[in-house]
Amino acid sequence: MQDVEHGHSAFEDITEKSFPGKWKVIYFYPKDFTAVCGSEVAGFDRLSKAFADRNAVLMGGSTDNEHSKLGWRRESPELSHLAHFSFADETGSLLDQLGVRDKEKGIAMRATFVVDPDNVIRHVTVNGIFVGRNPEETLRVLDALQTEAPCVCNREVGGETL
After folding, report:
1. How many angstroms separate the CA atoms of 102 and 160, rounded?
2. Whether residue 153 lies in the annotated active site
């Protein structure tokens, strides 16, 4: 399998020093090549421009390795041209540090982290492995956090603040 995709290297290391000055939206999912996970990856990707417009880097990953992710993107038309990063946490060390590993199955729960430019986690949601999430809600929360003002319940993206 060639490690080049769309004229660029398909792989690069990402650390806490990557993307200085940017917000990060990091989401974990249980497994590559599964229907619910694929629907979430595609759902987040449909909003990738909206996240980028808010100075946020979007990253999704699981414990499957980078070759699995590349193969999944090449096999699935819906994932073939992702506009956001995919990452592999093969050992699950990040999962364990963040406490989002399903203990019974040993894989990632559906966890989403919104991290500010200073690498402070500002929002976390965690779903069990069988419950998909709503990427639009993540965008809504990011938008509200960036206002740095009080926001009422169910405030729409770009809505009024108090």
Report:
1. 38
2. no
